[in-house]
Model the fold of this input.
Amino acid sequence: MITDDNAALAVQGLTKRYRPEGAPAVVDLSFTLPRGATWGLLGGNGAGKTTTIAMLLGLLVPSGGRILALGHDMAVDRFAALARMNFSSPYVALPHRLSVAENLMVYAHLYGVPKPRQRIEELAEQLQLTDLLKRPAGELSAGQKTRVALAKSLVNRPDLLLLDEPTASLDPDTGDWVRSWLERYRAESGCAILLASHNMAEVERLCAEVLVLRAGRVVDRGSPSALLERYGRDDLEEVFLDIARERGNAAERADGSAEQMA
Ligand SMILES: Nc1ncnc2c1ncn2[C@@H]1O[C@H](COP(=O)(O)OP(=O)(O)OP(=O)(O)O)[C@@H](O)[C@H]1O
Done:
């Protein structure tokens, strides 16, 4: 049973099968994300990251397991939690004909944000979107859309933020700027962040703890520094490759058990 009301997220035994006969997309996932922490979900294509985030948001019904988000059981009380959560995903397109300001206003109303115009101006200033507010969302570059999506995800000052590939289409300079911004925002707001990313440098920089998924299962976890030490590597990219290619950690490679596992 999960009872951790003080956690931002407490997940136990979370499982998703899209088809009864097929392989599960997520299997028996359990973790507790503390309030105010940033954790990462790592894994190759098809590992189950997006499926996990969709279940955490109540967009997909789990086949098994339980989710407590900000102390609310998502199976019975999801709207209380969702009002204090938000997300950003490259898979969700903003209505193209609405301007950036109109898009943000729709979301501000959906979340019942007090003084919505003021909040939008504040976010636009913080995320350097002021010059884009009157532009139709459909005319923006991929990088500009990503920054607007980030503003959308913060409109209700969430206590729990789920970010799927938040810097995927950003150039290195803007990506770095967004990462610094997210670090500062988390520190100032106390918001907990769960981040799915293929960018190892991003995960290493932002995340206190990383869950590594392969074929829907957590195959390893730990802080970036603990993973680097366990795998005897200098950067998380090499750790990711060791796990994806089933080469094992440093001890397993040394005694040859990784080759037997693969
Ligand atoms: N709607 C769906 N119906 C059936 N299977 C699905 C569906 N969505 C995802 N899957 C399967 O579930 C598994 C996990 O997919 P998911 O999109 O969660 O992975 P991911 O880690 O987000 O991958 P990526 O890094 O490519 O975005 C994959 O095998 C995928 O084919």
Q: What stands out?
A: The chain has a mean pLDDT of 90. The pocket of adenosine-5'-triphosphate is lined by residues 18, 25, 43, 45-51 (CB under 6 Å). The longest strand covers residues 7-16.
